[in-house]
């Protein structure tokens, strides 16, 4: 069958339709529409679908663009098999190789090895025979955050201290039997100053957002009541974000670089989001056109 579409924008079924009553769903839909219209503006024939659409022939599109596939980590095995099949039928943006690299937070160690400053981290491999108390004793850490190496939306993310380790050790033992985990010293500046999300397209910075946790919480995601505001980064922060993206195994067409000031006062990488990051197009609409132009260039 001949190619019909240039780009299919991928979402998950929860966000296929607009909502007049749910602001969160409306924002997702609206931002995807901004991308849709930008792609059409540069002459690319476009469609928006759920990634698990059973009736679509993926060989009929030149590429698929991962945007809001936010159920993938809850359906990881299914998503992984789908990824393998679809990557043989069309071009993935970002690529399957970079998605698989970025899915597992061990990628942070790859970046650290080539000079990107990351949050101090200790990785605990699947099947490790260790307790939370032993880890904190060995590392001499008193307040920490525990999270899975394959995660999203703060799934199984816990704030620990020496008083609650016994309370969380049972869930930790259940998790570590099945997946790798990472432990990081609690970063106090994320609570007091927030976390900065830097949007980078084809290696070039476009705009930034400052995310802050609500009072009494440490998670900056808006799922947990966090707030966001526009942010004007320093030249140093922009250079850090662009350098982090260019350190990837290949240059991603889009990236969100989450940075913060660590406990030593240095700019540090919290996460490099290359799969389906929220990119805040509604805060800077020209970024959608930058993405569309980059995709057109790649496809030609």
Task: Explain what the structure shows.
The chain has 300 residues and is of the alpha+beta class. It has three domains: 5-94, Rossmann fold (3-Layer(aba) Sandwich); 107-117 and 189-274, ATP-grasp fold, B domain (D-amino Acid Aminotransferase, Chain A, domain 1, 2-Layer Sandwich), CATH 3.30.470; 122-186, Dna Ligase, domain 1 (2-Layer Sandwich), CATH 3.30.1490. It has helices at residues 23-41, 76-86, 96-103, 107-113, 132-139, 165-176, 188-192, 235-246, 286-299; strands at 5-11, 46-50, 61-68, 91-93, 122-124, 143-148, 158-161, 181-185, 195-201, 204-212, 227-231, 254-261, 267-273. The strands form three sheets. The chain has a five-stranded antiparallel β-sheet with strand order 11-10-9-12-13. It has a four-stranded parallel β-sheet with strand order 2-1-3-4, covered by helices on one side. Strands 5-8-6-7 form a four-stranded antiparallel β-sheet, covered by helices on one side. Helix 2 (76-86) links the parallel strand 3 and strand 4 (91-93). Helix 1 packs across helix 9. It is globular. The two termini are 20 Å apart. The model has no long low-confidence stretch (mean pLDDT 93).
Percent helix? 25-40%
Counting DSSP E segments of at least 2 residues, the number of strands comes to: 13
Low-pLDDT residue intervals, each spanning 5 or more residues: none
Order of helices and strands: EHEEHEHHEHEEHEHEEEHEEH
Characterize the quaternary organization of these chains: single chain
> How far apart, in Å, are the first and last alpha carbons?
20 Å
């Amino acid at each position: 069958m001949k190619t019909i579409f240039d780009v299919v924008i991928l979402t998950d079924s929860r966000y296929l339709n607009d909502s007049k009553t749910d602001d969160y769903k409306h924002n997702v839909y609206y931002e995807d529409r901004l991308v849709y219209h930008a792609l059409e503006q540069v002459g690319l024939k476009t469609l928006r679908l759920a990634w698990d659409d059973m009736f679509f022939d993926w060989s009929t599109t030149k590429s698929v663009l991962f945007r809001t596939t936010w159920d993938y980590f809850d359906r990881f095995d299914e998503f992984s098999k789908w990824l393998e099949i679809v990557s043989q039928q069309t071009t993935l943006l970002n690529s399957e190789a970079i998605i698989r690299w970025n899915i597992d937070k061990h990628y942070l160690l790859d970046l650290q090895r080539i000079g990107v400053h990351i949050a101090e981290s200790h990785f605990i491999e699947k099947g490790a025979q260790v307790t939370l108390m032993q880890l904190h004793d060995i590392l001499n850490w008193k307040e920490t955050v525990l999270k899975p190496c394959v995660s999203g939306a703060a799934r199984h993310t816990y704030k620990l201290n020496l008083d609650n380790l016994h309370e969380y050790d049972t869930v930790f033992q259940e998790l570590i039997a099945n997946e790798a985990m990472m432990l990081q010293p609690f970063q106090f500046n994320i609570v007091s100053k927030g976390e900065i999300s830097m949007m980078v397209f084809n290696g070039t910075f476009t705009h930034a957002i400052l995310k802050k946790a609500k009072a009494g919480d440490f998670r900056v995601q808006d799922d947990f009541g966090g707030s966001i505001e526009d942010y004007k980064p320093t030249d140093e922060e922009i250079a850090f974000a662009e350098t982090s993206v260019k350190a990837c195994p290949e240059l991603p067409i889009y990236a969100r670089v989450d940075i913060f000031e660590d406990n030593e006062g240095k700019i540090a990488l919290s996460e490099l989001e290359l799969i389906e990051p929220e990119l805040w197009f509604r805060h800077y609409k020209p970024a959608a056109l930058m993405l569309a132009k980059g995709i057109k260039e790649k496809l030609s």
